[in-house]
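Memo to structure team: turn this sequence into structure tokens by end of day. - J.P.
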Amino acid sequence: MSGFLLIARNDVKRQFVQPFAWVVLALTCALLAWQFLVALDAYLRIVPKLANVPNSQGATDLIAIPLLRSLSGLLMLIVPLATMRSLAGERRNHSLPLLLAAGIGNLRIVLGKFLGAYALVALVVVIALAMPLALHFGTDMDLGRLAAAALGLLLYAGALTAIGIACSAWTSHPALAAAAALVIGSFLAMLDMGARFQGIDNALINWLSLSTHLEPFLFGLVASVDIVYFLLLTTLALLFAGRRLDGLRAHG
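Reply from structure team:
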């Protein structure tokens, strides 16, 4: 098995033998389930009225997409918590020199840490997606739109995870790494909103925003430019983390 896969597997096992991952999953599921049930109850109350409205919105628009949009906000908090100990914890426990001396390579170490943290984050997305999918047995759901939304959220979560890994590589304090990842992620998410508030539209600053590229997926639109944006941001963040490990290796 490749070195980065061993690191990823070890990190996944480490997360799930500790209560932290289970607490995060439990709290996230509880919050999303509450929102899901509230939206479902509201939807059932207005279904008779929707039947008389031509081209009215269905369960996908009124339940599933708002739930997944809320998940994107939750990921801003969950991902920094999932990544804060990836490399900062290794430095704090003085085990990073052993990892660097294993002959795996800096980028493979970073990739392994990324996959280990991303496993937990992707599981959160899958659990959230399972809630509206359960409605497919009783009503018509737009599965294509849900698939596009799921793809967008997974790419979005991957970019946030890579940012978290990069922040974790630059400090030995997990809390500081989580705070930095939260600030950077929030800044990138709010760029478009701030620009539009100032009357700026269709400019570079709008394009750099995370929300600009996530929203089309939630509307069922899968565009190569949005996929490339998330993959590019993920790659740059991981390269940045690998560069930091180069510096740590050079300074012993």
